[in-house]
């Protein structure tokens, strides 16, 4: 009997989802042409933004609040995983010669690319998120190949680095008050420097936070 | 822009697939995959719909929003996985109690 | 020239389809993982050609990132999943 | 010129189809490990779509996160689940044999 109900529920869900998808598809097809207004507004204000790449300008200047809150969400996710009970550490990995030399080769290359992406963000695709994610991937690689990274939740300096992105963002935003402007408005001549400042710390924070999230919680000794 | 519309509709398809899987699949890892596919679909709809502007004019605002979304998505996935691990450690199951047979 | 690039892209895409078949069929986990790696390698090639086609050098950055990060998944597979799979196979045999 | 448009469209349609196919198999296939590998492939295809939509920023983020982090995260979590399942099975079989010698905890 429960099996029958289960099948009925599945069928109902399929109908509802399909119906919604068809309705949304009609909506999408019949939408009026996209309005270029927003793109033009961004293009008009690019000279004030402090960078020459529009996506970076939107992320760190025009819609800075979004990015600020996103950094906070990352930290919240980390607090969430840490507030669960500690998990068992995976058994130690036996070092393999091939992987060892591979990581020795790859680590400087990836670090170089992290720096490149961070630098490129000002004028080309790239920026703090991509660089931070790459940094986290490097941490994952090193962790998986048996390098013991000094990542321990109790260490104060680690928590400081994790919060550094958020703090740098808030400092840069509060800088507007110092200059008699609104919260989150950068003085024209400092905009480039402030964005670089935020991005550098944000890269570090995002990298370390994402890597720590990868560990799936505080690890308990084996 | 046929391409943009095509990918927008693909995103819609992914959204529907993900939503259906989220409702019907019982394994929690599978549910997390479903949430990720669903999210990717929504991002594609957003990207596809705003790409229908005249050529060479690209709207950076949705791009920035999608990048933010992707990072939030991975954070949510990691938190979800940690919770799945906890559920598994406590109950030995990888499904929700109300969905066990 | 554009035509040749486009044809190569479509051809590379067909090889992706072949890789997809291998992921679906298996038979072992290693086959599936290697097919996914083939996906990555082919995607690098497609990205490079698209960069040439669209004259967007930024696409090459994406290819670079993909080439660098392909190792992470493989190492995760070898060190975590493969050990688990071979252990459970040892127990069952 | 027409051949070019047709080829581009063919590529786009193929990419969209493969994307849907990968997602479908990842979500509804039986084998969970296969689903995770398919999800990794799905991330790569999604990055290609973002390139086709002229969004290299998103493609970079998708590659860095989809190819590097999510894949490793899922594989690692899957291995943990499988491993503890095996351990539990081993514990139960050994416990049924020598139940008295063990102190309950």
UniProtKB/TrEMBL annotation, chain A:
This protein's UniProt keywords: Cell membrane, Membrane, Transmembrane, Transmembrane helix
Ranges annotated as spanning the membrane: 12-31, 68-85, 105-122, 128-144, 156-174, 194-216
Pfam family, one: MnhB
Keyword rRNA processing: no
UniProt cross-references to InterPro entries, sorted A to Z: CPA3_antiporter_subunitB (IPR050622), MnhB (IPR007182)
Ranges where the Na+/H+ antiporter MnhB subunit-related protein domain occurs: 99-210
GO cellular component, one term: plasma membrane
Topological type in the membrane: Multi-pass membrane protein
Signal peptide segment: none
Localization (cell): Cell membrane
Keyword Repressor among record annotations: no
Database matches in PANTHER family: NA(+)/H(+) ANTIPORTER SUBUNIT B, NA(+)_H(+) ANTIPORTER SUBUNIT B
Family, similarity comment: Belongs to the CPA3 antiporters (TC 2.A.63) subunit B family.
Record's protein name: Domain related to MnhB subunit of Na+/H+ antiporter
Lineage: Bacteria, Pseudomonadati, Pseudomonadota, Betaproteobacteria, Nitrosomonadales
UniProtKB/TrEMBL annotation, chain B:
Membrane topology, from the record: Multi-pass membrane protein
One cellular component (GO) term of this entry: plasma membrane
The protein's name in its UniProt record: Multicomponent Na+:H+ antiporter subunit C
Transmembrane domains' residue ranges: 6-23, 32-49, 61-84
Location in the cell: Cell membrane
PANTHER family reported in the protein's UniProt record: ANTIPORTER SUBUNIT MNHC2-RELATED
Recorded family membership: Belongs to the CPA3 antiporters (TC 2.A.63) subunit C family.
Source organism (scientific name): Nitrosomonas halophila
Pfam families: Oxidored_q2
Alphabetical list of InterPro entries matching this protein: CPA3_antiporter_subunitC (IPR050601), NUOK/Mnh_C1-like (IPR039428)
UniProt keyword terms in alphabetical order: Cell membrane, Membrane, Transmembrane, Transmembrane helix
Automatic annotation (TrEMBL), chain C:
Annotated family: Belongs to the CPA3 antiporters (TC 2.A.63) subunit F family.
Keywords in alphabetical order: Cell membrane, Membrane, Transmembrane, Transmembrane helix, Transport
Annotated membrane topology: Multi-pass membrane protein
Organism ancestry: Bacteria, Pseudomonadati, Pseudomonadota, Betaproteobacteria, Nitrosomonadales
Highest taxon listed in the record's lineage: Bacteria
Localization terms from the record: Cell membrane
Annotated protein name in UniProt: Multicomponent Na+:H+ antiporter subunit F
Residue ranges crossing the lipid bilayer per the database entry: 34-51, 63-82
InterPro entries: MrpF/PhaF-like
Cellular component GO terms held in the UniProt record: plasma membrane
Pfam families for this protein: MrpF_PhaF (PF04066)
MF annotations from Gene Ontology: sodium:proton antiporter activity
From TrEMBL, chain D:
Keyword annotations of the record: Cell membrane, Membrane, Transmembrane, Transmembrane helix
Residue ranges of the region described as Disordered: 86-105
Domain MrpA C-terminal/MbhD: 17-83
Membrane topology: Multi-pass membrane protein
Segments traversing the membrane: 6-28, 35-53, 59-79
Ranges of compositional bias, category Polar residues: 90-105
Protein name listed in UniProt: Uncharacterized MnhB-related membrane protein
């Amino acid at each position: 009997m429960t099996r029958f109900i289960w099948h009925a529920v599945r069928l109902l869900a399929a109908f509802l989802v399909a119906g919604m998808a068809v309705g949304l598809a009609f909506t999408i097809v019949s939408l009026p042409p996209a309005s270029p207004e927003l793109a033009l507004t961004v293009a008009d204000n690019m000279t004030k933004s402090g960078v020459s790449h529009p996506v970076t300008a939107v992320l760190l200047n025009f819609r800075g609040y979004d990015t600020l809150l996103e950094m906070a969400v990352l930290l919240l996710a980390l607090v969430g995983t840490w507030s669960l009970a500690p998990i068992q550490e995976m058994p130690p990995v036996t070092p393999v010669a091939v992987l060892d030399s591979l990581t020795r080769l790859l680590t400087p290359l990836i670090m170089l690319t992290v720096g490149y992406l961070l630098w490129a963000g000002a004028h080309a695709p790239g920026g703090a998120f991509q660089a931070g994610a790459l940094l986290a991937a490097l941490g994952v690689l090193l962790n998986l190949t048996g390098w013991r990274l000094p990542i321990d939740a109790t260490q104060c300096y680690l928590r400081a680095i994790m919060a550094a992105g958020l703090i740098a963002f808030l400092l840069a935003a509060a800088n507007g008050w110092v200059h008699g402007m609104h919260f989150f408005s950068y003085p024209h001549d400092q905009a480039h420097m402030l964005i670089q400042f935020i991005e550098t710390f944000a890269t570090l924070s995002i990298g370390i936070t994402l890597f720590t999230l990868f560990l799936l919680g505080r690890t308990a000794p084996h | 822009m046929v391409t943009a519309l095509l990918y927008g509709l693909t995103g819609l398809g992914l959204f529907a697939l993900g939503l259906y899987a989220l409702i019907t699949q019982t394994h929690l890892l599978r549910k997390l995959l479903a949430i990720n596919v669903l999210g990717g679909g929504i991002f594609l709809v957003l990207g596809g719909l705003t790409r229908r502007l005249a050529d060479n004019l690209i709207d950076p605002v949705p791009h920035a929003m999608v990048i933010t979304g992707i990072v939030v998505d991975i954070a949510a996935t990691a938190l979800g996985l940690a919770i799945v691990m906890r559920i598994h450690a406590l109950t030995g199951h990888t499904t929700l109690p109300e969905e066990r047979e | 020239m554009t035509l040749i690039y486009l044809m190569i892209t479509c051809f590379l895409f067909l090889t992706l389809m072949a890789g997809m078949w291998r992921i679906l069929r298996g038979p072992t986990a290693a086959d599936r993982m290697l097919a996914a790696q083939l996906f990555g390698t082919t995607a690098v090639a497609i990205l490079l050609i698209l960069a040439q086609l669209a004259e967007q050098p930024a696409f090459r950055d994406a290819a670079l990132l993909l080439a660098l990060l392909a190792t992470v998944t493989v190492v995760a597979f070898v060190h975590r999943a493969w050990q688990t799979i071979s252990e459970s196979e040892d127990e069952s045999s | 010129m027409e051949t070019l448009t047709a080829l581009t469209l063919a590529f786009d349609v193929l990419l969209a189809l493969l994307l849907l196919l990968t997602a479908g198999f990842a979500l509804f296939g039986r084998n969970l490990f296969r689903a995770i590998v398919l999800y990794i492939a799905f991330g790569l295809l999604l990055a290609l779509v973002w390139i086709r939509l002229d969004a290299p920023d998103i493609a970079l983020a998708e590659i860095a996160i989809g190819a590097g982090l999510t894949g490793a995260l899922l594989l690692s979590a899957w291995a943990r689940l499988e491993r503890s399942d095996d351990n539990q099975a081993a514990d139960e079989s050994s416990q049924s044999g020598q139940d008295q010698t063990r102190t309950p905890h």
